[in-house]
């Protein structure tokens, strides 16, 4: 399969390499480093052991827990201690090998160790490839909420080897599809048509369609973060990076409410369905586009409903959303396909009614 590259031109330009075999390019990005710390989850132990092949460097394997259990202060501290024991210096590099949870943590380790060492991201999930590994948001969760501690720290390169998708459980492919669908609604509606044409094909990990979807979603993300790496507050119709938070205000609150046991894409799927319904109720979005959300998301195996009783807890959790300014909630909404805008301090009754429509 052909290897493609997508340029990300933010503060320090880098390339995202996409295709089966992309991992073979790793040695060229690490040719001059002395040691490599590979941060990975248990399921990728064998792949991690092969990371140093072709590199003239000592490899330190740093296994971290599965999924969100890696994104904690305790695990972060353990990573720092391991690098300290190994005497890691600025001529060494960190590789994050895994899904978004692992690369969020690994990127933050690289950002903070000696105030910044080289970081190479090797996403191994659909969600990691299309979203988490690109754009330089790194960090961990607190019990109080999602991604509350972190840094903007750009990778040296991102290698998306599609071979990793073949063994990925179907629910994880679906979860990643939530961010692909997000990219479709906010910026590239062709993505939506491609999925609707044949949702099963879209989820085939060795097919051509998934490759097209991965590249299109990365292109959306690269363009957004290239223009606004550090997520300034939106100005008028120019939402900058905040646009990528479509569906995340409620989505992150659900993740916290579920004690970080839900997959990120599943929570974002409910969050997008909610905000589409809110946009429709406010007369901002047409019924067809609003209804297209749950239809499409369900077609790729994602949830779009949530119990009504959870509203008070979710409403409170949303206060800590990073888009909140003073006590005003702010939601990325749609005025139409690929026409996002920022809704500030929406009417509480409308919010609750939109949420209750999901139950
Ligand atoms: N930094 C960003 O811009 C950004 C963007 C989107 C999401 N995120 C974050 O990403 C995280 C979600 O990432 P995710 O969906 O990749 O989840 P994840 O990292 O938890 O991985 C999902 C599961 O797949 C397993 N896994 C990983 N690669 C595998 C493979 N090739 N084969 C089999 N199993 C594999 C993992 O061990 C885990 O159990 C969330 O914490 C979310 O907040 C960050
Ligand atoms: O890259 C971004 O910016 C995003 O908002 C992408 C989201 O998909 C992602 O989940 C991100 O981690 C959310 O960031 P947060 O700043 O709301 O925690
Ligand atoms: Zn997300």
UniProtKB/TrEMBL annotation:
Keywords: Amino-acid biosynthesis, Aromatic amino acid biosynthesis, Cobalt, Cytoplasm, Lyase, Metal-binding, NAD, Nucleotide-binding, Zinc. One of its GO terms (molecular function) is metal ion binding. It is an enzyme of class 4 (lyase). Zn(2+) binds at residues 179, 248, 264. It catalyses: 7-phospho-2-dehydro-3-deoxy-D-arabino-heptonate = 3-dehydroquinate + phosphate. Its cofactor is Co(2+); Zn(2+); NAD(+). One of its GO terms (biological process) is chorismate biosynthetic process. Binds 1 divalent metal cation per subunit. Can use either Co(2+) or Zn(2+). SUPFAM superfamilies: Dehydroquinate synthase-like. Residues 176-324 form the 3-dehydroquinate synthase C-terminal domain. It is found in: Cytoplasm. GO terms for cellular component: cytoplasm. Transmembrane segments: none annotated. Its EC number is 4.2.3.4. It holds the Pfam family DHQ_synthase. Its main location: cytoplasm. NCBIfam families: aroB (TIGR01357). Catalyzes the conversion of 3-deoxy-D-arabino-heptulosonate 7-phosphate (DAHP) to dehydroquinate (DHQ). This is 3-dehydroquinate synthase. It comes from Micropruina glycogenica.
């Amino acid at each position: 399969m052909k290897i493609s590259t997508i340029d990300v031109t933010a503060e320090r330009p880098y390339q995202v390499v996409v295709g089966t075999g992309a991992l073979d390019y790793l040695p060229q990005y690490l040719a001059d480093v002395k040691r490599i710390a590979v941060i990975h989850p248990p399921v990728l132990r064998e792949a991690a052991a092969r990371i140093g092949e072709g590199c003239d460097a000592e490899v330190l394997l740093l296994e971290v827990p599965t999924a969100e259990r890696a994104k904690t202060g305790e695990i972060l501290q353990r990573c720092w201690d391991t690098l300290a024991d190994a005497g890691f210096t600025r001529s060494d590099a960190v590789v994050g090998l895994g899904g978004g949870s692992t690369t969020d943590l690994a990127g933050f380790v690289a950002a903070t160790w000696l105030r910044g060492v080289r970081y190479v991201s090797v996403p191994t999930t659909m969600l990691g490839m299309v979203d988490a590994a690109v754009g330089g948001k790194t960090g961990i969760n607190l019990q109080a909420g999602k991604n509350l501690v972190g840094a903007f720290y750009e990778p040296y390169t991102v290698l998306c080897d599609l071979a990793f998708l073949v063994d990925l459980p179907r629910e994880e492919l679906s979860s990643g599809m939530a961010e692909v669908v997000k990219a479709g609604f906010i910026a590239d509606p062709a993505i939506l048509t491609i999925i609707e044409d044949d949702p099963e094909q879209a989820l085939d990990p060795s097919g051509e369609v998934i490759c097209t979807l991965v590249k299109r979603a990365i292109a959306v993300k690269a363009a957004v973060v290239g223009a606004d790496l550090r997520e300034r507050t939106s100005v008028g119709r120019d939402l900058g990076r905040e646009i990528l938070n479509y569906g995340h205000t409620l989505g992150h609150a659900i993740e916290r409410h579920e004690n970080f046991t839900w997959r990120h894409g599943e929570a974002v799927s409910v969050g997008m369905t909610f905000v589409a319904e809110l946009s429709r109720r406010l007369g901002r979005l047409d019924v067809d586009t609003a209804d297209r959300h749950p239809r499409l998301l369900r077609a790729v195996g994602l949830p779009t409903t949530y119990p009504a009783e959870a509203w008070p807890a979710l409403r409170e959790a949303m206060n800590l959303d990073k888009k909140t300014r003073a006590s005003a909630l702010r939601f990325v909404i749609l005025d139409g396909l690929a026409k996002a805008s920022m809704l500030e301090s929406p009417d509480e009754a409308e919010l609750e009614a939109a949420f209750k429509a999901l139950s």
